[in-house]
Amino acid sequence: MTMNPTEPIQAPRSQPEATETLHPFVESVAAPADDQAADLLISREELDALQRDLDQALAKADEHWKLYLGAHAEMENLRKRTERDVQNAHKFALERFFNELLPVRDSLELGLTAANGTVDVAQLREGVDLTLKQLAAAMEKFGVREVNPLNAKFDPHLHEAMAMAPTDQAEPNTVIQVVQKGYLLNERLIRPAKVIVAQAAPKAAG
Q: CA nearest 145: which of 136, 133, 154?
């Protein structure tokens, strides 16, 4: 019987001891030094001081907000009062003016009543003249002034020329007749005076 040669038995290789290695891209994190850790710590006193500052800032902000709300409300009330005053001014701006005109109307009505009987022309003329003076006085109280430029130089800002009349009785460009008086309201023209203006008379052929 032939025996097979015995194969040598190899002892198992010993495993290399595991060594702890770090990933090449991972850096080791070192614990903070004691002085750095101390810098990160906030004392209780400092925290209380910060809290007090924060409370004071919030209180000041709340105070300012209340002041703003009060001022806003006051401005809104002022705006409403102003709008109401403007509306009333538009409605009643002519009240005083018409109060001044009412006596004028009364005088005219009395004159018409008196004219129903025997008419005295002199008395009627006197009554009309007084009524006209009342009206003029009422208008003057409110800044109305008449423009009656008879014999004055023509002013295109105040007068409206209706015609030119050749004459040797007045200087050229002079108002020789007022067809309709003009009026100013507080120095602002509300109606120009309609006038006839003098023109140089043509020279006689000779």
A: 136
* pLDDT above 90: residue 39: no
Three state DSSP letters for 62-108: HHHHHHHHHHHHHHHHHHHHHHHHHHHHHHHCCHHHHHHHHHHHHHH
| Proportion of the chain above pLDDT 90, given as a percent | 49
Which residues make Cβ contacts (< 8 Å) with residue 142, sequence separation at least 6?
A: 96, 97, 100, 185
pLDDT band at 28 (very low <50, low <70, confident <90, very high): very low
Tokens of 159: 């007068």
pTM equals 0.56
Residue 137 neighbours by CB under 8 Å, 6+ apart: 100
CATH of 143-201, one of 3.40.50.720, 3.40.50.2000, 3.20.20.70, 2.30.22.10: 2.30.22.10
In this predicted model, which residue has the larger pLDDT, 23 or 141?
141
Whether 101 contacts 135, CB under 8 Å: yes
